[in-house]
Amino acid sequence: MKTCLECSAKIFGREDKKFCSDSCRNAYNNKINKDSTNFMRNINNKLRKNYRILAELNVDGKSKASRDKLLTKGFDFEFFTNILQTKTGNTYYFLYDQGYRSLDNDYFMLVKKEI
């Protein structure tokens, strides 16, 4: 007889079942996927905030914003998920599918990568 991975109750039903209920499945997965340290939680929060700011300012998929506007909204230029170097030598910094690159006069081109 199999037991639930979360509460150790006996499982009835399909042979491949791992949990006795949806609430046990959710509780188990929430524990596993929880940010394990404050350090990770803080970084993930900064990434989420940066992403929300870019998505808010870049509704059409391509736009322009000043450094001051980004900073006023709380954007932190030290946190991004990846860097893209183009063949023409431009460097884009991305937060998942939202990106930006530096232009002249403290402006940034905001772009959205098609997924």
From TrEMBL:
This is DUF2116 family Zn-ribbon domain-containing protein.
